[in-house]
Amino acid sequence: MSAAQPSSLPHDPQSTGAQPTSVRLMGVQARAAARVLRSLPTDRKVAALHAIAAGLRANASAILAANAQDVQAAEASGLPEAMVARLRLDARALDGIAADVEAVSRLPDPVGETTPPSTQPSGIRVSTRRVPLGVLGVIYESRPNVTVDVAALAIMSGNAVILRGGRETVRSNAALEDVIHAALREQNLPAHAAQVIRDPARERMLELLKLDDLVDAIIPRGGAGLHRYCVENATVPVIVGGIGVVHIYLDPSFTHDPADVTRAAAIIHNAKVQKPSACNALDTLLIHEQALGTLPDIARDLHASGVTLRADPPAHAVLSAAGIAAEPATAADFGTEFLALTASVRTVASLDEALDFIATHGNHTDVILTRDDAQARRFVQDVDSAAVIVNASPRFNDGGQLGLGAEVAISTQKLHARGPMGLRELTTTKWVVEGNGEVRG
Amino acid sequence: MSAAQPSSLPHDPQSTGAQPTSVRLMGVQARAAARVLRSLPTDRKVAALHAIAAGLRANASAILAANAQDVQAAEASGLPEAMVARLRLDARALDGIAADVEAVSRLPDPVGETTPPSTQPSGIRVSTRRVPLGVLGVIYESRPNVTVDVAALAIMSGNAVILRGGRETVRSNAALEDVIHAALREQNLPAHAAQVIRDPARERMLELLKLDDLVDAIIPRGGAGLHRYCVENATVPVIVGGIGVVHIYLDPSFTHDPADVTRAAAIIHNAKVQKPSACNALDTLLIHEQALGTLPDIARDLHASGVTLRADPPAHAVLSAAGIAAEPATAADFGTEFLALTASVRTVASLDEALDFIATHGNHTDVILTRDDAQARRFVQDVDSAAVIVNASPRFNDGGQLGLGAEVAISTQKLHARGPMGLRELTTTKWVVEGNGEVRG
Asked: By its UniProt entry, which InterPro entries does this protein fall under (chains A, B) (predicted)?
């Protein structure tokens, strides 16, 4: 009989962990690892995550030493302090990362969920079964915690992952990969389930983006430039996200009761100030002209927290009359994601005008503050964004806050996943058909 | 107060239907139409489809005249008769297309389905709502029925669609678009809900592929070259499909009872012969060496139907001994989609060898014929293809056969949709959050 054709490189739980010579080879190894991972029972995935968490704690000094080298090199290269801060780990942060891995291990495993079979007229029984995506490519910037978070989410959802972190975290990520590989080997699992591209050259990232015969999805985590680069260069499907303009529409019905004005001010303050660098932070306040009288109350708190308001003429006039500094808005201040303590204010004459504005500029998170249920229903129906929120802060558009437990990224595209992506969004389904000799007529 | 910024071009139900000057303008118009469609109640979508079906019947002579011109031009240009046949419409075919539109109107509308709200620790109530994708771009080859089928599926799922058919069907598609537009206007709906790119230049298709700020998904329907072109050039997310190698593994347990051998022969014959040009037709038979004795019985029927078998040495020897002609297989005959009356045969020593082979070459539809339940379970678990089938023909991997009612395409990628895509696969979800003044702590 014919010799078996070599199907793919076998996974090798005892491999040395030496860096493969090419990203394509990493892809082949990831595919082989994914075949093992996709059939793992939940308890083995949980055990792998526990081993990783234990490894992080046991190897803290080696990881922190590697991280200190990254920090030193980043400082020497003149990287801005804000960037260096994102890169820096300490014992407490590392313990938090290990605890996050343990938290992922407690999430429900979506793999294997099966729909009830339906019998078709032909006699076949049809169901779908939830299965891992296969091999993920995740590209991110300088936070080393992402390396571990994403590896944990990938393994728990039965996927292999190829990680490409920032140039500034190469040593930290290498140390973290060593710990992950040792933990996987200890559990007799393929170390290639989570691989880090250690060569920071952009060409390696480009190879990953074009590996469509081996990688099932690319998930970029970073700024608009990174997402754009992936969309324009990848042949692997990309899940874009994280970028988008956040609006709050304030309806007059939410300003009749002084307690509501206080609530509105608190929501708008929380939306802008709690974490201005987040993608779900407020960018543009759309205020009904009949609610303009409350704008000074809202603006005072923002102003006190250092927020710069860029207001259209009616809003600017109201703020000036109340003695609150604001800049005049230009066209560029609308449809812009600020990622800073800046927000624009635009006056609208109606809910319709607000909806038209959001139809043009929104896609991420949009909020209505209203006491009119019919208006709330119209807003929720008409606004076509990843998250539509009534009477609460846009900052709730977050995997943890929406009940996913953890998130790998926030998608703003519509295919596959929209909004925060948890374990379930790292899976797909396959059709399962059972018959008894049926043929198609 | 400030003047409202023009949010987007308004849809104009009374527009003349003149061809827009650019694909980008079509995209802007499609987006505006999509905003109307996404909130339509089911009955208005049903009425639109009925109006389209009625329009097709009422305008049959104009459509068939345009189609006759396309056919004449195709014949004059020397297009192969098989291609001309795919292009040709007659009164009966057109009536069938209208009936298909009516069938789509009877499918359940997935839009608006909402998950039960969950209250989170913060107090917010969270649910997801099923909504249309928005604007679809569908690129296909010469069958004019696709123009109507896809428009009907798009409208029924609340999406706008931009259609780009083959160069050979320009006149047919223009006539069909005229009918669809008239029907939509009659229903006071935006005609731009379904637009045909009438200019067959490849540059227009390329514009569509790069319209990622306006188009939510590209769905190619055609050969491998078209899919590859889309993947390599699109910045809009692409759902690839239709391409893939189909395997049937025949286990000895399915050959002990002569009735099973008859069933196996019937399934394999159906898989290869019923529609050899289909993507779910058999490519490679993997036969266990202990089942080789039944290969002549299986091959005789195939042979009688004009199938060429390309067999590996053990299979070839068995066929030769039985006096059945077969060609020797080369490496290129495995992992190859034939789309013709050709199939390859490979002998394997075990289920494991079959699984390894499928792990390398499969991703579309794979079948096991077995009487051993444990083997069936292993096959279903390990094979990572869009459809995994036990003891039935691979030809069942089809939207109609699996119970979707209709399909817009068959996806072989893993993101978003896998296997046949019906109305539900043309939708996405959005997060809906209701609060009472909650802010994030």
From this structure: Ald_DH/histidinol_DH, Ald_DH_C, Ald_DH_N, Aldehyde_DH_dom, Glu-5-SA_DH, GPR_dom
